[in-house]
Amino acid sequence: KLLNSVCKRPVNDSETQDQSEIDRLLLVLPLAVDGLIKLNPEGGISKAVPPERIVDTLLRYSSAERLAVLRALNFYICCDELKSIETCIPEIQKHVYPLIGSPYHKVRLLALQISWQIEKLSSGPESMRSELLELSYQAERTPLTITDYREKIKILQKLSCTNPSVS
């Protein structure tokens, strides 16, 4: 019920509402999504709250500055029955793909994971785009330490245009 009421609430940055109310709602939103997933309601998450409502609300507020909301979107996409969000895929892609170029590691990591999950659903795990997103995700996931840097270089070399599997 909490997630339903938070998603129904017409919170819009351009309205005259004060920023503290928006910030409070954005703190509750990821917790409500997390709670709903952990409760695992009978009939699935999509029976409790329509997936369009959850995705629309999360997309409206997910950005590089609001990492918790982006995490909630990632968690929801990874844990929910992905078939239920099939209608939202173009909107998710339009919003998340630009975040792959973010200067922030955590934002890129979440954007790549979301994009990879969605691409596997829409095109299949064997598609070229899915494989490229998976390689990018693996490279981003590799820690930036001296010992692990070599592994990251090997993964990134697989993305090279001179690599026969990419051409």
From TrEMBL:
Organism listed in the record: Lygus hesperus (Western plant bug)
Underlying gene: HERC2_33
The protein's name in its UniProt record: E3 ubiquitin-protein ligase HERC2
Highest taxon of the lineage: Eukaryota
